[in-house]
Specification:
Strand content: 35-45%
Shape: globular
Distance between the termini: 52 Å
Number of helices: 6
Order of helices and strands: HEHEEEEHEHEHEEH
Structural class: alpha+beta
Radius of gyration: 24 Å
Number of domains: 1
Helix content: 25-40%
Number of strands: 9
Oligomer: single chain
Mean pLDDT: 71
Largest sheet: 7 strands, mixed
């Protein structure tokens, strides 16, 4: 009787471990040009007109404010819901985009705008402020939609030893990122053109450094 009770308890524990090993999570973070420029309470007052551009133009470039839509929880790493890009990383990406734009004759200068200058749902009133501050005519607004999937493979069974939690790469990371750049003439409120791009990254990590690995992806 004692042996049966012990075996029953052991089976329950093994089932719990296997369920934990197969657990997964999804983290989604995004920013939206539409949410930033056209919040519901301001949509009716925005009337685009015909652009009147001065060439070469003074251009600004910035990330629109982002938000965390969903988050996951890992037993070892805890809640995973950090911004996928730090401000430093955003500035580095904007530097690369700015270098690409500088090749064109219609661009006179490019100003990289810090994220702190763009307010959530700031719309064109916020862009008018930035236009005055930086003396720009056109702005390139960069947005992203990133989904990070994490599945705990069978190697995660080793996490039940402390050493395994630190050194065994049992977390399978799959990161998909859609980035979009929309270029607007600020004065006319008119979009001139847009350029999307997609990135797909696969990797693995230990549960202890899961958050760091997801940020690197």
């Amino acid at each position: 009787m004692l042996n049966q009770s012990f075996i029953h308890t052991l089976l329950i524990l093994l089932a719990a471990i296997l369920l934990t090993a197969c657990a997964g999570q999804q983290v989604r973070t995004k920013s939206s040009v539409v949410d930033y420029l056209y919040p519901k309470e301001k949509q009716a007052s925005i009337q685009p007109s015909i652009p009147r551009l001065t060439i070469p133009a003074k251009v600004g470039i910035a990330f629109v404010p982002g938000s965390t839509e969903a988050s996951g929880y890992s037993y070892w790493a805890g809640r995973v819901n950090a911004e996928p890009l730090t401000e430093r990383e955003k500035m580095q990406l904007l530097d690369k985009v700015a270098a690409h734009f500088k090749k064109y004759d219609f661009v006179k200068s490019i100003e990289i705008i810090p994220s702190s200058y763009l307010t959530p749902q700031g719309s064109f009133a916020n862009l008018d402020q930035i236009k005055t501050m930086y003396g720009i005519d056109i702005i390139a607004l960069v947005s992203y939609d990133q989904v990070q999937f994490v599945d705990e493979g069978m190697l995660s069974l080793s996490y039940w030893t402390l050493v395994g939690a630190y050194v065994i790469s049992g977390e399978k990371n799959d990161t998909s990122t859609l980035m979009d750049t929309a270029v607007y003439d600020i004065a006319s409120r008119k979009m001139l053109f847009r350029a999307p791009g997609v990135s797909h990254v696969k990797g693995s990590s230990t549960p202890i450094n899961l958050s760091e690995e997801l940020r690197a992806d």
